[in-house]
Amino acid sequence: MINLDRILGLVLLTLAVAYGWGAFNFPVAFAGPESVGPATFPKILAFIVGTCSLYMLIKPDSLEEGFEYKALPELFLVLAVLVLYVFLMEPLGFVLSTAFMVAVLCWRMGVKPLYASVTGIVSSTLVFLLFHFGLALPLPIGPWEV
Question: Residue 9: CB partners within 8 Å, gap ≥ 6?
Fold first, then answer.
């Protein structure tokens, strides 16, 4: 029987290598190659995804579960929210679009709507502050841009 974890691990490893390759082709940061620049986060993400995908290839789950077709509507909803997130990023900015995305995904995972909204707002604000002040990387501001 085909192990879906190994297939997913191979697909994710391919994406991680391609993503990392693209990150190494970013322009060098203004302060030099040792500083935090536009390629830092994609390189870290490519490493994490690559490591996790290697783990999935080496040690997949032993459970032989089949695919449940009743989960398809939820999967399509997640896909729709992520596509909408991409299109809302510029006009609404990072904080609002990320808060919306996180809130909807938390709500679909069973969190009460109020707690999902608070989680979305707090997490998007903290990530924005980390990127803006901690890493000095600009993110779309949205309607508050002057």
Answer: 53, 54, 55, 56, 57, 60
List, for residues 18-64, the tens digit of each pLDDT value: 988 888 887 766 666 666 777 778 889 999 999 999 998 888 877 66
Q: Which of 119, 122, 120, 140 is nearest to 131 (CA)?
A: 140
Indicate left, alpha or beta for 94 from its phi (over 0: left) and psi (-120 to 50: alpha): alpha
Distances in whole angstroms, Cα of residue 66 to Cα of each of 5, 56, 77, 109: 12, 17, 21, 20
Q: What span, in angstroms and rounded, lies between the C-alpha atoms of 67 and 35?
A: 45
The answer to whether 26 and 43 have CB atoms below 8 angstroms apart is no
Q: Write down how long the chain is.
A: 146
* Residue range 107-112: mean pLDDT, rounded: 90
